[in-house]
Amino acid sequence: MLILSLDTSTAACSVALHKDGTLLGCYELFTERTSAAMLTTLIDNVVAQAGFSLSQLDAVAVAKGPGSYTGLRIGVSTAKGLCFALDKPLLAINTLAGMAEQLRAYYSSDYLLCPMIDARRMEVYCALFSTSGQEVAPTSAHIIDEQSFQDWLTKSPVVFFGDGAAKCQALLGQNSNALFPEELVVPSARTIGKLATEAFAAGAFEDINTFEPFYLKDFMTTQPKKAVL
User: Fold this and answer.
1) Rounded CA gap, 150 and 168, in Å?
2) At 227, is the pLDDT very low, low, confident or very high (cuts 50, 70, 90)?
3) Which residues form a coiled coil (predicted)?
């Protein structure tokens, strides 16, 4: 099972290649506006340097969002183009689930993980995951205030991370159950590919003709509504 994964959900751009769930190679760039210019080059390099050709892929996976409108459009368009050209299936993974996967091994079952992507002003895209990988609060656009996540914080420690977490730390940082890792966690194709391996085994393929990124567009084009978390 050879899977190429792409993540262009934010300013970071990454591609990864997994074989039977094992990471063979990964390229990550963190320069603004790199996705469109460098994505094809990164794809060619990671596949060739692992000793394979694009025709040997079994599937292409992409981070479906939420995230940057432009970044998601570039990533999904590229993934769909590869699938059409190579006649390969498409897998789509929630960007926040991929971020949570980066930290799952570092916390016990007592903790909840809350990946956050900066949206605008005091708004973030976020979700809550258990350390077993279960989504316990769905992906939403949430306007941060002093009452955010209070129901969850009374029950267990919550780890807030990602480029949207700074907004939350300023308001919730005094709560002993609100934890903020020092290292910035950014979306990465490394964990998109890991989750895509599981999706492939489950046969969770997308319809290439109709698939669209998960923009959370209602929140971007209308007045944001506060999500209850």
Assistant:
1) 12
2) low
3) none
Domain 2-95+187-216 bears CATH identifier 2.40.30.130: no
Strand pairing category for 158-161 and 178-179: parallel
User: With contact defined as beta carbons under 8 Å apart, do 226 and 126 qualify?
Assistant: no
Q: Token digits for 17?
A: 């290649």
Residues listed for the chain: 229
Q: Say which CATH topology domain 96-179 has.
A: Nucleotidyltransferase; domain 5 (3.30.420)
Write down the residue that tokens 């769909």 correspond to: 80
- Give me the amino acid identity at 196: A
CB 15 within 8 A of CB 26: yes
As beta bridge partners, residue 92 has: 62
Q: What is the DSSP string of the chain?
A: -EEEEEE-SSS-EEEEEEETTEEEEEEEE-STT-HHHHHHHHHHHHHHHTT--GGG-SEEEEEEESS-HHHHHHHHHHHHHHHHHHT--EEEEEHHHHHHHHHGGGS-TT-EEEEEEEEETTEEEEEEEETTS-EEEEEEEEE--TTTTHHHHTTS-EEEESTTHHHHHHHHTTSTTEE--SSPP---HHHHHHHHHHHHHTT--B-TTT------HHHHHS-------
Query: What's the pLDDT band for 219 if we cut at 50, 70, 90?
Result: very low
The mean per-residue pLDDT over the stretch 89-96 comes to: 98
Asked if omega into 66 is within 30° of 0 (cis), the reply is yes
The amino acid sitting at 24 is L
As a whole number of Å, the end-to-end CA separation of the chain is 38
